[in-house]
Amino acid sequence: MLESIEKALNKQLNEELYSWYLYLSMASWFEDKGYQGFAAWMHAQAQEEMIHAMKFYHFISDRNGRVILQQIKTPKNEWSSPLNIFEESLAHEQYITGCINDLVTEARKSNDHATDVFLQWFVTEQVEEEDNVGTFVDRLKMVEGAPGGLFMMDQEAGNRPRRRRARS
Ligand code: OFO
Asked: Least crowded by CB within 10 Å, which of 13, 19, 98, 112?
């Protein structure tokens, strides 16, 4: 594996670890405010991010690369509302989609087909990641100013089975 690709994959591993950290921080905000359903949803999301990180870890290793762990930046810990959190999650997922797309471009430029194929799982995953969070944003906007609606959404978030679990 080219050194530039190895470096870029290590960087993405760090991004995934940061995603895990960010969603854990969001889960803790929800717990603190009494939104147990949203907190459970965020915990599940955080777990998925750790799975993403480990996919990068194993791939780098399997290709005889070296995993170099870097510092994980401190995530934010205060938000103004559940809608604010989900809007920021959506922005974060859009950022991650951009990172994955850039990686694909780099792998193709380097003729690294194995990395390209590996990344395709993430390309598909990001469609779902953005869709899941985007749906929350739309629905939270609908119930803005209606505590009953927010309460129901929180309950629902706690009960909803996560689609992705089966294929991680
Ligand atoms: Fe949220 O998909 Fe990985 O980072």
From this structure: 98
